[in-house]
Amino acid sequence: MADTKLATPLRSSTPQPTFSSDAPRLSSPPSSPPCFPWELKESAEDEKPAPSKTLTPPPKTAFSLLGKRKVLNSISENVRPAKKATRTKSKPESRPALTQLQISLGQRVQTTCVICGMEYVASSAEDRKLHDIYHRQHTEGYDVGKDFTVKARDVTSLANAKHGQEGDVICVVQYSDTLARRKRAQAVLEVVQKDLGAVPINEKELWSLLLDDETNNGAETTRRRDGIKRRPRYAAYMYVRGTKCIGFLLAERIKKAHRVVGPTPEKARTLTPQPTETQPGGSALAALKARREAEAKAKTTKLAEEKKADNKPLELSKSSTPADLGVARLWTSPAHRKQNVARSLLDAACAHGLGMDGNDERRVDRIAFSQPTAMGTQLARRWTGRRCGWLVYID
Question: Could you tell me where the Polar residues compositional bias lies (predicted)?
């Protein structure tokens, strides 16, 4: 039997691992040997200290400091009321300190201008400025500008007129004119109405149209889309000297008016001088002297009666009379009165609105005045040449 020899184990050429127990001891403690993760877990459980029999309180949280939280119920049963908005009182705004500009010692604060009649505070610079503007417009006329007369469609030159001056013109403004010209005429009308104390006429009524009744007597008519003829209700006649409007007449289309009634027959007989009879034995010279004295006495009595009647309201007839044109407003600047400005305006209104000359006698029966004042009554009597019998209409 062949001898069997034990095979000697072969050594690997790879270096053998060296463990910490085989290494020489060093001054620093050796590091832990490598291990698997589960071994670390088991060692951690082994090293965990045994639980003590005494219970430690749980750590304090925010809820433990605030108190035990109430268990919430369902939403429908535990609805928290909405918080009311608290109103914060706003601090009062600091107002600037007021300064007394006037000292009231019982004196009159407002002053009334004797000429223009405007009331203003004399100590106020703003009031004085407004008064100066209105005072100049009232006394010297309203400034309408240089182009007002140049761009006018209907102009009456008074250069060769009997009552006008060189360069004076009368311009007519009505519905068909531009808006700028109508605004100028309306501004002058406001000054006139304040001075006369008349009822204001609004803008819509001032530039309105009336149906044409085929008796317009040459007045301007306007056709609209419906084909019906219409004519302006009002027409403004402005007397311009230079650039200032110193006279204004507002004419209105009317249909009827009333005549001014004169004195009654009883009063008329007292104003007529009675003829004196020549006494027998008297001379003709004495009779002539007595007759002249009676006429002078009757004339004096008549003037006294007329003066007394001027201070009384006008008496109008109860029955109406047909009329075509009414003088709604008539005004002359105080600085230019007694210069026949109003007479020129009346003549221009007759020529433009009625197609008549100012000297035509028929104008008295066609034109009427709107409830004239004392000065207007005197003007109407001078212009018509009658103390009674001229027309007045109620607007």
Answer: 10-19, 271-281
